Amino acid sequence: MKQLSVAYRPVLRLLAIVTFILFQKVPGISQNNSYPKGNLNKENLNVIQTAVPFLLIAPDPIGGAMGETGVARKADVFSMHWNPAKYAFLHGDSIPKILTESDSTVYPKSKTKVGLSYVPYMTSITGSNMAYFVLSQKIKSSVLSLAVRYFRQGEIIMTDIQGQELGSFIPKEYAIDLSYAKKINLNLSFALTGRFIHSNLSNNYVGGNKLKPANSFAADFGLYWQKKVDWLPDKKTELAWGLNISNVGSKMSYLSSNNQGAFLPTNLRLGPRLTIEVDSLKYLTLTIEISKLLVPTPPIFKRDSLGNPIPIPGTNRYEIASGMDNNVSTFRGLFQSFYDAPDGLSEELSEIILAFGFEFVTQKAFILRGGYHMESERKGNRKFF
Question: What is the mean pLDDT of residues 212-239?
Answer without folding.
Answer: 92
